[in-house]
Design goal:
The complex is a heterodimer.
Chain A (H helix, E strand, L loop, with lengths): L3 H8 L12 E7 L4 E10 L2 E10 L2 H14 L4 H5 L3 H8 L7 H20 L1
Antiparallel strand pairs in A: 1-2, 2-3
Helix pairs in contact in A: 1-2, 2-5
Chain B lengths: L5 E2 L10 H7 L1 H4 L10 H21 L6 E4 L2 H19 L5 E5 L4 H12 L4 E5 L9 H7 L4 E5 L13 H13 L6 E5 L11 H4 L3 E5 L10 E5 L14 H4 L7 H39 L3 E3 L10 E6 L4 H10 L2 E2 L15 H5 L4 H5 L1 E5 L6 H22 L2
Parallel strand pairs in B: 1-11, 3-4, 3-5, 5-6, 6-7
Antiparallel strand pairs in B: 2-8, 7-8, 9-10, 10-12
Classes of the chains: A alpha+beta, B alpha/beta.
Chain lengths: 120, 395
Protein backbone atom coordinates (compact mmCIF):
# COMPACT_ATOMS: atom_id res chain seq x y z
CA UNK A 1 0.00 0.00 0.00
CA UNK A 2 2.75 2.45 0.94
CA UNK A 3 6.22 2.91 -0.56
CA UNK A 4 9.30 2.45 1.57
CA UNK A 5 9.91 6.19 1.48
CA UNK A 6 6.44 6.93 2.83
CA UNK A 7 7.05 4.51 5.69
CA UNK A 8 10.48 6.07 6.35
CA UNK A 9 8.96 9.53 6.71
CA UNK A 10 6.23 8.08 8.91
CA UNK A 11 8.71 6.30 11.17
CA UNK A 12 11.17 9.21 11.31
CA UNK A 13 9.33 12.38 10.44
CA UNK A 14 11.39 15.51 9.77
CA UNK A 15 10.56 18.96 11.19
CA UNK A 16 8.10 17.51 13.65
CA UNK A 17 6.81 19.36 16.68
CA UNK A 18 5.56 22.69 17.92
CA UNK A 19 7.66 25.79 17.17
CA UNK A 20 8.35 28.58 19.64
CA UNK A 21 7.47 32.05 18.36
CA UNK A 22 6.63 31.22 14.74
CA UNK A 23 5.93 34.09 12.35
CA UNK A 24 2.80 32.32 11.27
CA UNK A 25 0.79 29.25 12.25
CA UNK A 26 -1.96 27.62 10.17
CA UNK A 27 -4.26 24.69 10.73
CA UNK A 28 -6.48 22.67 8.34
CA UNK A 29 -8.54 19.51 8.51
CA UNK A 30 -11.37 18.35 10.68
CA UNK A 31 -12.03 15.57 13.15
CA UNK A 32 -14.70 14.10 10.85
CA UNK A 33 -12.16 12.92 8.28
CA UNK A 34 -9.56 12.25 10.94
CA UNK A 35 -6.69 14.40 9.76
CA UNK A 36 -5.69 17.68 11.38
CA UNK A 37 -2.49 19.44 10.29
CA UNK A 38 -0.87 22.39 11.99
CA UNK A 39 2.16 24.09 10.36
CA UNK A 40 4.51 26.61 11.98
CA UNK A 41 6.73 28.86 9.84
CA UNK A 42 9.59 31.27 10.47
CA UNK A 43 10.01 33.61 7.51
CA UNK A 44 12.72 36.12 6.73
CA UNK A 45 13.04 38.19 3.54
CA UNK A 46 10.32 36.11 1.91
CA UNK A 47 12.23 32.90 2.53
CA UNK A 48 11.04 30.04 4.75
CA UNK A 49 13.84 29.86 7.29
CA UNK A 50 12.25 27.23 9.45
CA UNK A 51 9.13 25.10 9.34
CA UNK A 52 7.61 22.44 11.54
CA UNK A 53 4.35 20.54 11.82
CA UNK A 54 1.99 18.79 14.17
CA UNK A 55 -0.24 16.27 12.41
CA UNK A 56 -2.94 14.11 13.84
CA UNK A 57 -3.68 11.58 11.14
CA UNK A 58 -2.84 8.52 9.16
CA UNK A 59 0.49 7.37 7.75
CA UNK A 60 -0.01 9.37 4.55
CA UNK A 61 -0.89 12.54 6.46
CA UNK A 62 2.19 12.31 8.70
CA UNK A 63 4.45 11.33 5.84
CA UNK A 64 3.34 14.09 3.48
CA UNK A 65 3.59 16.65 6.29
CA UNK A 66 7.18 15.58 6.83
CA UNK A 67 7.96 15.61 3.11
CA UNK A 68 6.40 18.97 2.27
CA UNK A 69 8.15 20.69 5.17
CA UNK A 70 11.45 19.31 3.88
CA UNK A 71 10.64 20.61 0.42
CA UNK A 72 9.52 24.03 1.59
CA UNK A 73 12.42 24.77 3.89
CA UNK A 74 14.77 27.37 2.35
CA UNK A 75 12.37 28.15 -0.48
CA UNK A 76 10.94 31.58 -1.20
CA UNK A 77 7.25 32.04 -0.44
CA UNK A 78 6.46 32.11 -4.16
CA UNK A 79 8.29 28.84 -4.71
CA UNK A 80 6.64 27.20 -1.71
CA UNK A 81 3.19 28.28 -2.92
CA UNK A 82 3.78 26.26 -6.08
CA UNK A 83 4.48 22.92 -4.37
CA UNK A 84 1.73 20.57 -5.55
CA UNK A 85 0.56 17.04 -4.87
CA UNK A 86 2.51 15.91 -7.93
CA UNK A 87 5.72 17.31 -6.48
CA UNK A 88 5.14 15.38 -3.27
CA UNK A 89 4.25 12.21 -5.16
CA UNK A 90 7.43 12.59 -7.20
CA UNK A 91 9.45 12.49 -4.00
CA UNK A 92 7.43 9.98 -2.00
CA UNK A 93 6.17 7.72 -4.73
CA UNK A 94 2.50 7.49 -5.55
CA UNK A 95 0.01 7.33 -2.73
CA UNK A 96 -3.07 5.10 -2.82
CA UNK A 97 -5.89 7.10 -4.50
CA UNK A 98 -7.91 7.38 -1.29
CA UNK A 99 -4.88 9.04 0.32
CA UNK A 100 -4.41 11.86 -2.20
CA UNK A 101 -6.77 13.79 0.05
CA UNK A 102 -4.08 13.73 2.79
CA UNK A 103 -1.36 15.05 0.51
CA UNK A 104 -3.66 17.80 -0.69
CA UNK A 105 -4.28 18.73 2.92
CA UNK A 106 -0.53 19.27 3.38
CA UNK A 107 -0.44 21.49 0.28
CA UNK A 108 -3.44 23.39 1.57
CA UNK A 109 -2.04 24.06 5.03
CA UNK A 110 1.27 25.33 3.65
CA UNK A 111 -0.52 27.70 1.27
CA UNK A 112 -2.84 28.84 4.04
CA UNK A 113 0.15 29.65 6.27
CA UNK A 114 1.80 31.68 3.52
CA UNK A 115 -1.41 33.51 2.65
CA UNK A 116 -2.04 34.26 6.31
CA UNK A 117 1.50 35.60 6.65
CA UNK A 118 1.09 37.80 3.61
CA UNK A 119 -2.26 39.05 4.83
CA UNK A 120 -0.82 40.17 8.14
CA UNK B 1 11.25 -12.50 19.55
CA UNK B 2 11.95 -9.61 17.20
CA UNK B 3 11.12 -11.47 14.04
CA UNK B 4 8.14 -13.37 15.30
CA UNK B 5 4.80 -12.37 13.87
CA UNK B 6 2.18 -11.57 16.45
CA UNK B 7 -1.17 -11.89 14.79
CA UNK B 8 -3.95 -10.16 16.70
CA UNK B 9 -6.33 -9.74 13.78
CA UNK B 10 -8.24 -13.01 14.08
CA UNK B 11 -11.58 -11.28 13.57
CA UNK B 12 -10.42 -10.37 10.06
CA UNK B 13 -9.33 -13.86 9.20
CA UNK B 14 -7.61 -16.85 10.77
CA UNK B 15 -4.93 -19.19 9.53
CA UNK B 16 -6.12 -22.63 8.53
CA UNK B 17 -5.56 -25.08 11.36
CA UNK B 18 -2.85 -27.53 10.24
CA UNK B 19 -5.07 -30.51 11.10
CA UNK B 20 -7.85 -29.03 8.97
CA UNK B 21 -5.48 -28.36 6.09
CA UNK B 22 -4.27 -31.94 6.20
CA UNK B 23 -7.83 -33.23 5.84
CA UNK B 24 -8.42 -30.91 2.88
CA UNK B 25 -5.34 -31.79 0.88
CA UNK B 26 -6.51 -35.06 -0.77
CA UNK B 27 -9.54 -33.27 -2.20
CA UNK B 28 -7.37 -31.12 -4.43
CA UNK B 29 -5.57 -33.91 -6.26
CA UNK B 30 -6.56 -37.44 -5.20
CA UNK B 31 -10.25 -37.22 -4.42
CA UNK B 32 -10.89 -34.46 -6.91
CA UNK B 33 -14.18 -35.78 -8.22
CA UNK B 34 -17.26 -33.73 -8.87
CA UNK B 35 -19.92 -34.62 -6.30
CA UNK B 36 -22.49 -34.65 -9.09
CA UNK B 37 -20.66 -37.35 -11.07
CA UNK B 38 -22.11 -40.85 -11.05
CA UNK B 39 -18.81 -42.74 -11.03
CA UNK B 40 -16.77 -43.84 -8.04
CA UNK B 41 -14.70 -40.68 -7.83
CA UNK B 42 -17.88 -38.63 -7.81
CA UNK B 43 -19.40 -40.88 -5.17
CA UNK B 44 -16.38 -40.41 -2.91
CA UNK B 45 -16.58 -36.66 -3.34
CA UNK B 46 -20.27 -36.72 -2.52
CA UNK B 47 -19.66 -38.77 0.60
CA UNK B 48 -16.97 -36.35 1.81
CA UNK B 49 -19.33 -33.45 1.22
CA UNK B 50 -22.18 -35.09 3.10
CA UNK B 51 -19.90 -35.95 5.99
CA UNK B 52 -18.96 -32.27 6.24
CA UNK B 53 -22.62 -31.30 6.09
CA UNK B 54 -23.27 -33.61 9.01
CA UNK B 55 -20.38 -32.07 10.96
CA UNK B 56 -21.87 -28.63 10.44
CA UNK B 57 -25.38 -29.82 11.30
CA UNK B 58 -24.14 -31.46 14.47
CA UNK B 59 -22.48 -28.20 15.51
CA UNK B 60 -25.64 -26.18 14.92
CA UNK B 61 -27.99 -28.94 16.13
CA UNK B 62 -30.02 -28.93 12.94
CA UNK B 63 -30.75 -31.34 10.09
CA UNK B 64 -28.04 -31.79 7.44
CA UNK B 65 -30.56 -30.87 4.76
CA UNK B 66 -30.93 -27.46 6.39
CA UNK B 67 -27.31 -26.64 5.53
CA UNK B 68 -26.43 -24.99 2.21
CA UNK B 69 -22.80 -24.47 1.27
CA UNK B 70 -22.01 -21.03 -0.11
CA UNK B 71 -18.90 -19.02 -0.94
CA UNK B 72 -18.97 -17.37 2.49
CA UNK B 73 -21.13 -15.38 4.86
CA UNK B 74 -21.41 -12.42 2.49
CA UNK B 75 -23.18 -14.65 0.00
CA UNK B 76 -25.25 -16.28 2.75
CA UNK B 77 -26.40 -12.90 4.07
CA UNK B 78 -27.22 -11.60 0.59
CA UNK B 79 -29.00 -14.78 -0.34
CA UNK B 80 -31.17 -14.94 2.76
CA UNK B 81 -32.25 -11.32 2.48
CA UNK B 82 -32.91 -11.24 -1.28
CA UNK B 83 -34.17 -14.81 -1.35
CA UNK B 84 -36.75 -14.34 1.37
CA UNK B 85 -37.99 -10.92 0.32
CA UNK B 86 -38.14 -11.87 -3.35
CA UNK B 87 -40.10 -14.98 -2.45
CA UNK B 88 -42.64 -12.89 -0.55
CA UNK B 89 -42.96 -10.17 -3.18
CA UNK B 90 -43.19 -12.48 -6.18
CA UNK B 91 -46.26 -14.12 -4.66
CA UNK B 92 -48.14 -10.93 -3.78
CA UNK B 93 -47.95 -7.17 -3.91
CA UNK B 94 -47.33 -7.21 -0.18
CA UNK B 95 -44.44 -5.00 0.97
CA UNK B 96 -42.51 -6.72 3.73
CA UNK B 97 -40.72 -4.95 6.54
CA UNK B 98 -37.14 -5.80 7.53
CA UNK B 99 -35.49 -4.98 10.86
CA UNK B 100 -31.72 -5.05 11.20
CA UNK B 101 -29.41 -3.45 13.74
CA UNK B 102 -27.60 -0.27 12.79
CA UNK B 103 -24.22 -1.96 13.16
CA UNK B 104 -24.76 -5.09 11.11
CA UNK B 105 -22.03 -6.12 8.73
CA UNK B 106 -22.19 -4.39 5.35
CA UNK B 107 -23.23 -7.66 3.73
CA UNK B 108 -26.51 -7.38 5.63
CA UNK B 109 -26.94 -3.61 5.45
CA UNK B 110 -26.28 -3.24 1.74
CA UNK B 111 -28.78 -5.84 0.43
CA UNK B 112 -31.42 -4.56 2.86
CA UNK B 113 -30.86 -0.97 1.74
CA UNK B 114 -30.98 -2.04 -1.90
CA UNK B 115 -34.40 -3.60 -1.37
CA UNK B 116 -35.60 -0.47 0.41
CA UNK B 117 -34.26 1.79 -2.33
CA UNK B 118 -36.05 -0.22 -4.98
CA UNK B 119 -39.29 -0.09 -3.06
CA UNK B 120 -39.34 -3.83 -2.47
CA UNK B 121 -39.20 -3.64 1.31
CA UNK B 122 -39.46 -1.31 4.26
CA UNK B 123 -36.38 -1.13 6.42
CA UNK B 124 -35.76 -0.26 10.05
CA UNK B 125 -32.20 0.22 11.25
CA UNK B 126 -32.37 -0.48 14.95
CA UNK B 127 -30.25 1.83 17.11
CA UNK B 128 -27.90 0.11 19.55
CA UNK B 129 -26.89 1.11 23.08
CA UNK B 130 -23.63 2.84 24.03
CA UNK B 131 -22.49 -0.56 25.24
CA UNK B 132 -22.92 -1.90 21.72
CA UNK B 133 -26.02 -3.97 22.40
CA UNK B 134 -29.39 -4.40 20.77
CA UNK B 135 -32.10 -3.65 23.31
CA UNK B 136 -35.08 -5.94 23.45
CA UNK B 137 -37.74 -3.31 24.16
CA UNK B 138 -36.56 -1.16 21.26
CA UNK B 139 -36.68 -4.19 18.97
CA UNK B 140 -40.14 -5.07 20.22
CA UNK B 141 -41.43 -1.59 19.45
CA UNK B 142 -39.98 -1.71 15.94
CA UNK B 143 -41.92 -4.83 14.95
CA UNK B 144 -44.82 -4.05 12.64
CA UNK B 145 -47.67 -6.01 11.13
CA UNK B 146 -45.72 -6.51 7.93
CA UNK B 147 -42.39 -7.38 9.57
CA UNK B 148 -41.14 -10.55 7.93
CA UNK B 149 -37.42 -10.56 8.62
CA UNK B 150 -35.31 -9.65 11.62
CA UNK B 151 -31.58 -9.96 11.17
CA UNK B 152 -29.36 -9.32 14.18
CA UNK B 153 -25.71 -10.31 14.24
CA UNK B 154 -24.66 -12.68 17.01
CA UNK B 155 -21.47 -10.76 17.83
CA UNK B 156 -20.31 -7.48 16.36
CA UNK B 157 -17.22 -7.72 14.21
CA UNK B 158 -15.65 -4.46 15.39
CA UNK B 159 -16.40 -4.04 19.08
CA UNK B 160 -17.05 -7.73 19.75
CA UNK B 161 -20.26 -7.19 21.70
CA UNK B 162 -22.52 -10.23 21.98
CA UNK B 163 -26.18 -9.65 21.25
CA UNK B 164 -29.02 -11.20 23.29
CA UNK B 165 -29.77 -13.73 20.56
CA UNK B 166 -31.58 -16.20 22.80
CA UNK B 167 -33.88 -13.50 24.15
CA UNK B 168 -34.54 -12.17 20.67
CA UNK B 169 -35.28 -15.70 19.45
CA UNK B 170 -37.73 -16.19 22.31
CA UNK B 171 -39.44 -12.86 21.67
CA UNK B 172 -39.90 -13.60 17.97
CA UNK B 173 -41.23 -17.07 18.74
CA UNK B 174 -43.85 -15.59 21.07
CA UNK B 175 -44.90 -12.98 18.54
CA UNK B 176 -45.03 -15.59 15.80
CA UNK B 177 -47.52 -17.73 17.73
CA UNK B 178 -50.30 -15.30 16.93
CA UNK B 179 -49.18 -14.57 13.38
CA UNK B 180 -50.14 -16.24 10.18
CA UNK B 181 -47.18 -14.75 8.33
CA UNK B 182 -44.21 -15.61 10.53
CA UNK B 183 -41.20 -13.40 11.12
CA UNK B 184 -37.95 -15.06 10.08
CA UNK B 185 -35.10 -14.59 12.55
CA UNK B 186 -31.69 -14.55 10.88
CA UNK B 187 -28.34 -14.10 12.55
CA UNK B 188 -24.94 -13.43 11.06
CA UNK B 189 -22.89 -15.66 13.36
CA UNK B 190 -19.53 -15.19 11.65
CA UNK B 191 -17.76 -13.89 14.76
CA UNK B 192 -19.66 -16.10 17.20
CA UNK B 193 -18.90 -19.65 16.06
CA UNK B 194 -15.52 -19.87 17.79
CA UNK B 195 -16.81 -18.91 21.20
CA UNK B 196 -20.57 -19.02 21.63
CA UNK B 197 -23.39 -21.53 21.77
CA UNK B 198 -24.81 -21.86 18.27
CA UNK B 199 -27.56 -24.37 18.88
CA UNK B 200 -30.16 -22.97 16.49
CA UNK B 201 -33.01 -24.79 18.19
CA UNK B 202 -32.44 -23.65 21.74
CA UNK B 203 -31.67 -20.14 20.47
CA UNK B 204 -34.75 -19.96 18.25
CA UNK B 205 -32.79 -19.08 15.13
CA UNK B 206 -34.42 -19.64 11.72
CA UNK B 207 -31.45 -18.77 9.53
CA UNK B 208 -27.74 -18.38 10.22
CA UNK B 209 -24.68 -17.39 8.20
CA UNK B 210 -21.07 -18.31 8.84
CA UNK B 211 -17.71 -18.33 7.10
CA UNK B 212 -14.93 -20.90 7.15
CA UNK B 213 -12.01 -18.52 7.30
CA UNK B 214 -12.98 -17.00 10.65
CA UNK B 215 -12.88 -20.39 12.36
CA UNK B 216 -9.46 -21.66 11.25
CA UNK B 217 -10.90 -23.08 8.07
CA UNK B 218 -10.34 -21.99 4.47
CA UNK B 219 -11.49 -18.83 2.72
CA UNK B 220 -14.17 -18.98 0.04
CA UNK B 221 -16.52 -21.31 1.88
CA UNK B 222 -19.43 -20.64 4.18
CA UNK B 223 -22.91 -21.82 4.90
CA UNK B 224 -26.44 -20.66 5.15
CA UNK B 225 -28.46 -22.61 7.67
CA UNK B 226 -32.13 -22.34 6.81
CA UNK B 227 -34.92 -23.93 8.82
CA UNK B 228 -36.79 -26.46 6.70
CA UNK B 229 -40.18 -24.83 6.49
CA UNK B 230 -38.87 -21.43 5.37
CA UNK B 231 -39.15 -20.88 1.63
CA UNK B 232 -36.66 -18.64 -0.16
CA UNK B 233 -35.73 -18.41 -3.80
CA UNK B 234 -32.22 -19.10 -5.00
CA UNK B 235 -29.75 -16.38 -5.82
CA UNK B 236 -27.36 -18.39 -7.95
CA UNK B 237 -29.10 -20.45 -10.62
CA UNK B 238 -27.65 -23.09 -12.87
CA UNK B 239 -26.98 -26.79 -12.60
CA UNK B 240 -29.13 -27.28 -9.53
CA UNK B 241 -26.58 -28.25 -6.91
CA UNK B 242 -27.44 -28.01 -3.21
CA UNK B 243 -30.92 -29.43 -3.74
CA UNK B 244 -31.59 -26.94 -6.51
CA UNK B 245 -31.02 -24.00 -4.19
CA UNK B 246 -27.43 -22.97 -4.87
CA UNK B 247 -25.93 -23.88 -8.20
CA UNK B 248 -22.28 -24.24 -9.05
CA UNK B 249 -19.89 -27.16 -8.65
CA UNK B 250 -19.24 -27.51 -4.96
CA UNK B 251 -16.00 -26.24 -3.41
CA UNK B 252 -15.18 -29.71 -2.18
CA UNK B 253 -11.87 -29.10 -0.41
CA UNK B 254 -13.37 -25.99 1.17
CA UNK B 255 -16.43 -27.90 2.31
CA UNK B 256 -14.30 -30.66 3.85
CA UNK B 257 -12.19 -27.97 5.55
CA UNK B 258 -15.22 -26.17 6.92
CA UNK B 259 -16.62 -29.39 8.39
CA UNK B 260 -13.31 -30.23 10.03
CA UNK B 261 -12.87 -26.67 11.30
CA UNK B 262 -16.26 -26.80 13.02
CA UNK B 263 -15.49 -30.18 14.51
CA UNK B 264 -12.28 -28.73 15.93
CA UNK B 265 -14.04 -25.69 17.41
CA UNK B 266 -16.53 -28.01 19.09
CA UNK B 267 -13.74 -30.12 20.58
CA UNK B 268 -11.95 -27.16 22.18
CA UNK B 269 -14.68 -26.33 24.67
CA UNK B 270 -14.87 -23.80 27.46
CA UNK B 271 -11.28 -24.06 28.78
CA UNK B 272 -10.10 -22.51 25.54
CA UNK B 273 -12.58 -19.66 26.01
CA UNK B 274 -11.34 -19.06 29.54
CA UNK B 275 -7.70 -19.03 28.50
CA UNK B 276 -8.17 -16.58 25.66
CA UNK B 277 -10.29 -14.34 27.88
CA UNK B 278 -7.53 -14.29 30.49
CA UNK B 279 -5.00 -13.15 27.89
CA UNK B 280 -7.41 -10.60 26.47
CA UNK B 281 -8.10 -9.17 29.94
CA UNK B 282 -4.39 -8.93 30.58
CA UNK B 283 -4.02 -6.94 27.37
CA UNK B 284 -6.87 -4.56 28.22
CA UNK B 285 -5.76 -4.04 31.81
CA UNK B 286 -2.18 -3.45 30.72
CA UNK B 287 -3.10 -0.91 28.04
CA UNK B 288 -5.50 1.06 30.23
CA UNK B 289 -2.92 1.12 33.04
CA UNK B 290 0.11 2.10 30.95
CA UNK B 291 -1.43 4.43 28.39
CA UNK B 292 -3.28 7.50 29.60
CA UNK B 293 -6.38 8.69 27.76
CA UNK B 294 -7.17 5.25 26.40
CA UNK B 295 -10.60 3.68 26.69
CA UNK B 296 -12.24 0.36 25.99
CA UNK B 297 -15.27 0.49 23.70
CA UNK B 298 -18.35 -1.70 24.09
CA UNK B 299 -19.67 -3.84 26.92
CA UNK B 300 -17.06 -5.81 28.86
CA UNK B 301 -19.68 -8.20 30.15
CA UNK B 302 -21.33 -9.17 26.87
CA UNK B 303 -18.25 -9.47 24.75
CA UNK B 304 -16.38 -12.06 22.73
CA UNK B 305 -13.51 -13.40 24.85
CA UNK B 306 -10.93 -12.57 22.18
CA UNK B 307 -11.85 -8.94 21.44
CA UNK B 308 -10.29 -5.77 22.80
CA UNK B 309 -11.40 -2.57 21.09
CA UNK B 310 -9.61 0.50 22.34
CA UNK B 311 -9.57 4.22 21.50
CA UNK B 312 -6.44 6.29 22.04
CA UNK B 313 -6.80 10.06 22.23
CA UNK B 314 -4.47 12.01 19.95
CA UNK B 315 -3.37 9.06 17.82
CA UNK B 316 -4.97 7.85 14.62
CA UNK B 317 -5.91 4.20 14.03
CA UNK B 318 -4.15 3.56 10.75
CA UNK B 319 -0.96 5.11 12.07
CA UNK B 320 -1.12 2.86 15.13
CA UNK B 321 -1.71 -0.21 12.94
CA UNK B 322 1.21 0.65 10.65
CA UNK B 323 3.56 1.45 13.51
CA UNK B 324 2.70 -1.88 15.16
CA UNK B 325 3.09 -3.61 11.80
CA UNK B 326 6.68 -2.31 11.64
CA UNK B 327 7.19 -4.35 14.82
CA UNK B 328 5.47 -7.40 13.30
CA UNK B 329 2.36 -6.97 15.40
CA UNK B 330 -0.79 -7.20 13.31
CA UNK B 331 -4.01 -5.55 14.43
CA UNK B 332 -6.76 -3.62 12.68
CA UNK B 333 -8.65 -0.37 12.70
CA UNK B 334 -11.93 0.86 11.32
CA UNK B 335 -10.57 4.37 11.10
CA UNK B 336 -11.70 6.16 7.97
CA UNK B 337 -8.09 6.55 6.99
CA UNK B 338 -7.76 2.81 6.63
CA UNK B 339 -10.95 2.33 4.68
CA UNK B 340 -12.24 3.21 1.26
CA UNK B 341 -14.09 6.25 2.49
CA UNK B 342 -13.26 9.27 4.57
CA UNK B 343 -16.13 8.65 6.96
CA UNK B 344 -15.58 7.34 10.47
CA UNK B 345 -16.81 3.78 11.08
CA UNK B 346 -20.62 3.61 11.18
CA UNK B 347 -20.33 0.86 13.79
CA UNK B 348 -18.42 3.07 16.20
CA UNK B 349 -20.63 6.08 15.53
CA UNK B 350 -23.68 3.87 16.19
CA UNK B 351 -22.43 3.11 19.71
CA UNK B 352 -21.97 6.81 20.40
CA UNK B 353 -18.27 7.36 19.81
CA UNK B 354 -17.19 10.78 18.57
CA UNK B 355 -15.45 10.88 15.17
CA UNK B 356 -12.12 11.47 16.99
CA UNK B 357 -12.63 8.44 19.20
CA UNK B 358 -13.61 6.37 16.18
CA UNK B 359 -10.54 7.44 14.19
CA UNK B 360 -8.25 6.74 17.11
CA UNK B 361 -9.40 3.20 17.70
CA UNK B 362 -7.79 -0.17 17.23
CA UNK B 363 -9.16 -3.69 17.39
CA UNK B 364 -7.05 -6.44 18.88
CA UNK B 365 -8.54 -9.87 18.21
CA UNK B 366 -6.70 -12.73 19.82
CA UNK B 367 -6.66 -16.23 18.42
CA UNK B 368 -6.00 -19.88 18.95
CA UNK B 369 -2.24 -19.41 18.93
CA UNK B 370 -1.91 -16.21 20.94
CA UNK B 371 0.52 -16.67 23.83
CA UNK B 372 1.22 -14.87 27.06
CA UNK B 373 4.55 -13.72 25.61
CA UNK B 374 2.72 -12.19 22.64
CA UNK B 375 0.59 -10.08 24.97
CA UNK B 376 3.59 -9.07 27.04
CA UNK B 377 5.46 -8.00 23.92
CA UNK B 378 2.53 -5.87 22.74
CA UNK B 379 2.29 -4.26 26.17
CA UNK B 380 5.98 -3.48 25.97
CA UNK B 381 5.86 -1.96 22.47
CA UNK B 382 2.53 -0.14 22.38
CA UNK B 383 3.03 2.67 24.95
CA UNK B 384 6.02 4.09 23.05
CA UNK B 385 4.15 3.98 19.75
CA UNK B 386 1.20 5.91 21.18
CA UNK B 387 3.61 8.34 22.85
CA UNK B 388 5.41 8.95 19.55
CA UNK B 389 2.19 9.48 17.59
CA UNK B 390 0.91 11.86 20.24
CA UNK B 391 4.13 13.80 19.98
CA UNK B 392 3.63 14.07 16.22
CA UNK B 393 0.02 15.15 16.63
CA UNK B 394 0.76 17.54 19.48
CA UNK B 395 -2.28 16.19 21.31
Amino acid sequence: MYSKKVIDHFQNPKNMGKMKNPDVMAEVGNPQCGDIMKFYLKIKDNVIKDISFETMGCVAAISTSSMITEMAKGKTLDQAMKISYNDIAKELGNLPPVKIHCANLAVEVLQKAINDYRGK
Amino acid sequence: MKNKEIYLDNSATTSVDPAVFKKMQPYFYQEYGNPSSVHKLGEKARQAMEKAREQVASFLNCFPEEIYFTAGATESNNWLIYGLINKITEESSFKPHIIISAFEHKSVIEPAKYLEKNNLAELTLLPVSKDGLVELDILKKAIKKNTRLISIMYANNEVGTVQPIKEIGKLIKEINQSRKQKIVFHTDAVQAINYLDCNVNSLGIDALSLSGHKIYGPKGIGILYLRKEIPIISLIRGGGQERNMRSGTENLAGIVGLGEAMKKVKSLGSIYNQNIKKLRNKLITGILKDISNSQINGSMENRLPNNAHISFRGAEGESIVMALSQKNIFVSTASACASHSLEPSYVLISIGLSPEQAHGSVRFSLGRWTTNQDIEYVLKILPDIIKRLRKISGR
